[in-house]
Write a sequence for this structure.
C-alpha cells in the first residue's frame, strides 16, 4: 500500500492537479516572457486572429479529450473535419440557410463518429486501427469525389455575415462555451464520471452496472459532432473550402490533450488542462515570430513540449505504481 | 532405495504478511510419481514456484541431484533438469509445434542460421517418444488443450528434464485423453524421471502415484506411500484442522424464499443444471475447488454471462437477467472476487466508487449532488468502519480489507435483496477478515439473502447456514451449516460419502 497523505483545501487541489498547474504555469511563463521581451505580441487584432484560428482546434480537442479519457483514440477527426466542411460548403453554395448548414455539418460528423463508435464499441476493435482506416477512407473518398476541387462559398456565410471582428469574437465565444459546457459536464454530471470510470477500468465499470460500450460509443459520436461544428467554425473564416483541409488536425488535438495532462491510458485529466495545453502549443509559432527566431524551430519546440509532457506522465505513474 | 532427485528442507516463503509456506520438507526420487495434494491456498503453487526458481524461498535449502543450490533462477532450474507443465500450456499459438519446441531448446541467439530439417526431425522424434500423434508442422493454435500439454512434455523431455512437475494436467481432459496422458506419465517414470503430480482427483492419485504428500496451510502434513493410505485418511489430512477462528453466530431466522434457481445452466461458462433456494436472512455458502463453477454461477446470476437454460425466480416471479443493469434493477448485487483488479476503480475516490451503482437513484437528471454523495459515503464509512482519511481518498490508497468494504458499500447502497460475495476475504488481513464476517452476519440479520463464495473452507463452514458444494459446473450437494470439513471436502472432490449415492 502506498502512503497517501491527506491534504485538504488549496494545497490538496495543488497536489491533485499539479500536472494541470504545471502546464498553466508554463503557459503563463511564456506569456510573461513575451510581455517583457516582445510586447508587440500583445497587439489586439493579431492576437484575436491567432485565437480565432485555434478555435476549431479547441472544439475538436475537447471531444478528443473525452475519447482519450475513455481510453480510446480517434485519429480520423482531421478527415471527418474535411468531409463535414465540404458537405457544409456544398449545401451552403446550393443556397441552404446557414443554421441548416450548421446542423447538417454536425449531423455529418455525428454519423462518422458513430461509425467509429460502432466499430470500436460494438465489435471491440482497437480504436487506433479503426480510426486509421476511417481516416484514410474519408480522405480518399473526398479526393475521389471532389478531384481536389475547392468549394466556393456564398458571401453571406463568411463570419456568419457578422463582419470580421464580430465574427472572430463569435467564433472564440462559441469554442469557449463548448469548452466550459464540456468541462462542467465532466465534473458535474454522472455521464462525465462514467467516462472516467470506463477509461480507468472498463471491466470494473461493467461490474458496477455501467455500460462501457455505450460510453465509448457516445464519446466517439460526440467527437464526430464536435468535428462537424469545428468544420463550420473554420469554414466561415475563408471564402473557399479546400478538400485537403484538416490534414494533421488530429495530431494537433491529441498533442493538446496529452500536453494538458490527460493520461493516454485513460481515466485521468480534465478539460482545463487541455485548454492550457492547446494555448501553450499554439503560442509557439507567434512567439518565435515576435522573438525573431526562425520559424523552423516551431515543430521542434512543440515536439519537445509533448515529449516533456509524456515524460512527466511516465514519472508520475511510476511514482504511484500504477 | 533410488537416489533423491530433489530434496527440499524447511522451505518458508511469505508474501507480505501472508505465510504461504511454513517449513515444508519434500523429496522426490528418480523413477517415482509423487502426488502433491492440498486445498486451495494450501501452498502447492508456491512450492512449485520455489522448485522452478520463479520465487526465491525466504529460508530453507533446495538440493537438486545431491547438490545444494542457492539463488535458484528459472533458467538455472531449467538447466538442472526441472520442467513444469502447467494446466494452461505456455506455448506460442501462432507458431508451429517444431518452432515452439525449438524456442525452448535451441540457444537464444538472434543471428544464427536456423536448421529447419533438424528442427523438424527433433520435434518429430520427441513427439514419437511420448506417443503423441501430432505433426511438427501444425500451428499450436490448432491443437487441443491435451495435445498442447503433450507438446509441453516433449519440450521437457527434449531439454533433458529429470524433474517434471505437472499441475492439474487432467483438469480439462476427456477420459480418453487422460488415459493417453497417464501412459505418458508412466513412461516418464519408467525412464527414471521424477514426476511431481498435482491433482484434486483422488482416484488419479491412487492409480498413478507412488507416494503422496499433503499440504495444509503452508505445512506438509505428511508423506505416505499410496498403498498405505486410503481416501478418507487423505481427506482428513487435507482438512484436519480445528476451526481456530471464532465466527459470529447465526442470529437470523431464515424467512421466505427470495431467490430460487431451477436447472439453471449456461453453456458458455460450463454451468449445468443448478437448482437451489436461498431465503431471506440466510447465508448460503458455496464451496468447491477452484474451477468448480462457483464464480461462473455468480456471473450468471449477475447477468455477466446470462443463463441459457433453466429458470431464475426472485420472490416467486420468473426473471431474466441479461446484464448487470438488469441484476441491479432486480435487487441482485455482486461483490466480485479479485477486487484489486475490478472490484473498485483504484484511481477513483472512495465516494465515487461507492455511488457508482446508484447514480440513477442518487442523481436524478444526471446532475451530481455532491452533498448527497458525501452523506451516503460518510454513512458507509462509519457503518462499515472503513479506514481512510476521507471520502475523497483514492480507493487505491486503501488496504485490501478496506477496498473490500468500499466494494461492499457500493452494493449495499443499491439496497439489494440478494447479495453475492465472491471470495470476500481473500488477501485480507485477519482483523479485517473477522470484521467482514461480522458485517455479513449483520446483513443477513437485516433480512438479506447472502450467497457467500469462498475457497476458505473454515470460512464457509463457520459462516454458512447451508452449504452448496459445486464440482465441474454442477451443484453436487447441499449440506446443512454445521457439516464437517471432511464431508464438504469429500463432496467437492467428488468422493461419495459412505452410504450416499
Amino acid at each position: 500500500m502506498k502512503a497517501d497523505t491527506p491534504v485538504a483545501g488549496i494545497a490538496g487541489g495543488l497536489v491533485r492537479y499539479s500536472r494541470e498547474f504545471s502546464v498553466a504555469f508554463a503557459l503563463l511563463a511564456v506569456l510573461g516572457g513575451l510581455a517583457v521581451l516582445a510586447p508587440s505580441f500583445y497587439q489586439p487584432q493579431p492576437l484575436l486572429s491567432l485565437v480565432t484560428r485555434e478555435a476549431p482546434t479547441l472544439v475538436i480537442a475537447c471531444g478528443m479529450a473525452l475519447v482519450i479519457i475513455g481510453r480510446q483514440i480517434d485519429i480520423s477527426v482531421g478527415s471527418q473535419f474535411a468531409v463535414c466542411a465540404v458537405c457544409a460548403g456544398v449545401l451552403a453554395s446550393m443556397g441552404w440557410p446557414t443554421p441548416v448548414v450548421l446542423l447538417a455539418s454536425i449531423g455529418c460528423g455525428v454519423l462518422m463518429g458513430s461509425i467509429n463508435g460502432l466499430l470500436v464499441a460494438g465489435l471491440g476493435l482497437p480504436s487506433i486501427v479503426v480510426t486509421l482506416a476511417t481516416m484514410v477512407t474519408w480522405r480518399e473518398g473526398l479526393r475521389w469525389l471532389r478531384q481536389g476541387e475547392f468549394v466556393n462559398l456564398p458571401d453571406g456565410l463568411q463570419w456568419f455575415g457578422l463582419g470580421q471582428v464580430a465574427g472572430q469574437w463569435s467564433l472564440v465565444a462559441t469554442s469557449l462555451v463548448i469548452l466550459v459546457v464540456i468541462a462542467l459536464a465532466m465534473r458535474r454530471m454522472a455521464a462525465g464520471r462514467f467516462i472516467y470510470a470506463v477509461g480507468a477500468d472498463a471491466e470494473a465499470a461493467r461490474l458496477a452496472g455501467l455500460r462501457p460500450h455505450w460510453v465509448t460509443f457516445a464519446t466517439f459520436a460526440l467527437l464526430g459532432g464536435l468535428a462537424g461544428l469545428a468544420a463550420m467554425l473554420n469554414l466561415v473564416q475563408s471564402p473557399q473550402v479546400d478538400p485537403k483541409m484538416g490534414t494533421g488536425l488530429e495530431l494537433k488535438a491529441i498533442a493538446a490533450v496529452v500536453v494538458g495532462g490527460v493520461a493516454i491510458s485513460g481515466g485521468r485529466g480534465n478539460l482545463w488542462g487541455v485548454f492550457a495545453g492547446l494555448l501553450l502549443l499554439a503560442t509557439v509559432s507567434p512567439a518565435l515570430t515576435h522573438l525573431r527566431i526562425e520559424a523552423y524551430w516551431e515543430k521542434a519546440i512543440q515536439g519537445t513540449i509533448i515529449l516533456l509532457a509524456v515524460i512527466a506522465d511516465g514519472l508520475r505513474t511510476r511514482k504511484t505504481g500504477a | 532405495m533410488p537416489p533423491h532427485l530433489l530434496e527440499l528442507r524447511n522451505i518458508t516463503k511469505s508474501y507480505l504478511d501472508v505465510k504461504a509456506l511454513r517449513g515444508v520438507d519434500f523429496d522426490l526420487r528418480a523413477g517415482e510419481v509423487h502426488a502433491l495434494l492440498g486445498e486451495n491456498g494450501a501452498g502447492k503453487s508456491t512450492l512449485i514456484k520455489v522448485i522452478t526458481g520463479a520465487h526465491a524461498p525466504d529460508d530453507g535449502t533446495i538440493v537438486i541431484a545431491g547438490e545444494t543450490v542457492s539463488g535458484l533462477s528459472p533458467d538455472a532450474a531449467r538447466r538442472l533438469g526441472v520442467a513444469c507443465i502447467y494446466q494452461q500450456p505456455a506455448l506460442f499459438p501462432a507458431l508451429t509445434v517444431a518452432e515452439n519446441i525449438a524456442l525452448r531448446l535451441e540457444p537464444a541467439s538472434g543471428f544464427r542460421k536456423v536448421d529447419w530439417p533438424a528442427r523438424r526431425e527433433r520435434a518429430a522424434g520427441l513427439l514419437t517418444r511420448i506417443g503423441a500423434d501430432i505433426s511438427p508442422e501444425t500451428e499450436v493454435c490448432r491443437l487441443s488443450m491435451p495435445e498442447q500439454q503433450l507438446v509441453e512434455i516433449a519440450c521437457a523431455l527434449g531439454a533433458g528434464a529429470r524433474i517434471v512437475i505437472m499441475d492439474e494436467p487432467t483438469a480439462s481432459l476427456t477420459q480418453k485423453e487422460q488415459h493417453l496422458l497417464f501412459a505418458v506419465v508412466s513412461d516418464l517414470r519408467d525412464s527414471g524421471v521424477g514426476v511431481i503430480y498435482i491433482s484434486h482427483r483422488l482416484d488419479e492419485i491412487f492409480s498413478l502415484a507412488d507416494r503422496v504428500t499433503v499440504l495444509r496451510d503452508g505445512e506438509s502434513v505428511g508423506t505416505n506411500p499410496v498403498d498405505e493410505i486410503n481416501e478418507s485418511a487423505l481427506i482428513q489430512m487435507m482438512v484436519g484442522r480445528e476451526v481456530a477462528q471464532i465466527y459470529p453466530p447465526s442470529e437470523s431466522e431464515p424467512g421466505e424464499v427470495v431467490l430460487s434457481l431451477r436447472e439453471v445452466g449456461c453453456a458458455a461458462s460450463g454451468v449445468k443444471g443448478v437448482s437451489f433456494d436461498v431465503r431471506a436472512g440466510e447465508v448460503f455458502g458455496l464451496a468447491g475447488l477452484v474451477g468448480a463453477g462457483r464464480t461462473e454461477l455468480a456471473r450468471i446470476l449477475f447477468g455477466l454471462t446470462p443463463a441459457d437454460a433453466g429458470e431464475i425466480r426472485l420472490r416467486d416471479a420468473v426473471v431474466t437477467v441479461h446484464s448487470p443493469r438488469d441484476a441491479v434493477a432486480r435487487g441482485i448485487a455482486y461483490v466480485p472476487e479479485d477486487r484489486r483488479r475490478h472490484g473498485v476503480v483504484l484511481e477513483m475516490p472512495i465516494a465515487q466508487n461507492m455511488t457508482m451503482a446508484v447514480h440513477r437513484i442518487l442523481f436524478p437528471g444526471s446532475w451530481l449532488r455532491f452533498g448527497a454523495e458525501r452523506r451516503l459515503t460518510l454513512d458507509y464509512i462509519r457503518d462499515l468502519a472503513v479506514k481512510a482519511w476521507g471520502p475523497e481518498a483514492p480507493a487505491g490508497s486503501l488496504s485490501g480489507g478496506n477496498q473490500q468494504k468500499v466494494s461492499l458499500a457500493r452494493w449495499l447502497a443499491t439496497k439489494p435483496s440478494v447479495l453475492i460475495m465472491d471470495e470476500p476475504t481473500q488477501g485480507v488481513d485477519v482483523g479485517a477478515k473477522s470484521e467482514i464476517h461480522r458485517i455479513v452476519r449483520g446483513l443477513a440479520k437485516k433480512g438479506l439473502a447472502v450467497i457467500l463464495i469462498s475457497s476458505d473452507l473454515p470460512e464457509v463452514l463457520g459462516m454458512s447456514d447451508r452449504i452448496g458444494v459445486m464440482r465441474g459446473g454442477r451443484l453436487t450437494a447441499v449440506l446443512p451449516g454445521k457439516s464437517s470439513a471432511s464431508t464438504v471436502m469429500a463432496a467437492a472432490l467428488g468422493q461419495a460419502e459412505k452410504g450416499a449415492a
In short: The interface with chain A takes residues 304, 323-325, 327-328, 334, 336, 341-348, 352, 356-357, 359, 363, 366-368, 389-390, 393-394, 396-399, 410 of chain B (CB under 8 Å).
